[in-house]
Amino acid sequence: MNAHHKDGNKLNCQRSNMRLATQSQSMQNHVRRVGFRGVFYSRHCKLWRAQVRRNGKKNHIGYYATADEAAAAAAEWRRKNPPFSRDARFANTSTFPEGSRHG
């Protein structure tokens, strides 16, 4: 188990902002340098690739001309293919999915 920041702010280490999470749960909120979850630049094709990992399996969604399009496709795939952690943030916002305890 890992400690995880509920609000995603690594500087907010108050006890009320911390929760225990598995590695899988922690990685659901991991954002790469691109700034979008599940978006990678493919130098081979010179396009943005959308990919989501669920249950240890990589799910290739497709290639897109812009990072924004790839992020939207990845977020849409996550909405249509649960389960993901209740605390996973969708797309690139600090908002939480419907029905979560955060909003």
How would you characterize this protein structure?
The strands form 2 sheets. This protein has a 3-stranded antiparallel beta sheet, covered by helices on one side. The protein is 18% helix and 27% strand. It has helices at residues 23-27, 67-80, and strands at residues 2-5, 18-21, 39-42, 47-54, 57-64. It is α+β, with helices and mostly antiparallel strands. Residues 90-103 have low confidence and may be disordered. It is elongated, with a radius of gyration of 14 Å.
Could you provide a short overview of the structure?
The protein is α+β, with helices and mostly antiparallel strands and 103 residues long. The chain has helices spanning 23-27, 67-80; strands at 2-5, 18-21, 39-42, 47-54, 57-64.
The number of distinct structural domains comes to: 2
The count of DSSP E runs of length 2 or more, i.e. the number of strands, is 5
Order of helices and strands: EEHEEEH
Task: Enumerate the spans where pLDDT stays under 50 for 5 or more consecutive residues.
Answer: 90-103
- Looking at the overall shape, the CATH architecture of the largest domain is 2-Layer Sandwich
| CATH class category label of the largest domain | Alpha Beta
Shape: elongated
Strand content: 25-35%
Number of distinct helices: 2
Protein traits:
2 helices, 5 strands, alpha+beta, GCC-box Binding Domain, two-stranded antiparallel sheet, 103 residues
SSE diagram, text form:
Blueprint: E1 2-5, E2 18-21, H1 23-27, E3 39-42, E4 47-54, E5 57-64, H2 67-80
Antiparallel strand pairs: 1-2, 3-4, 4-5
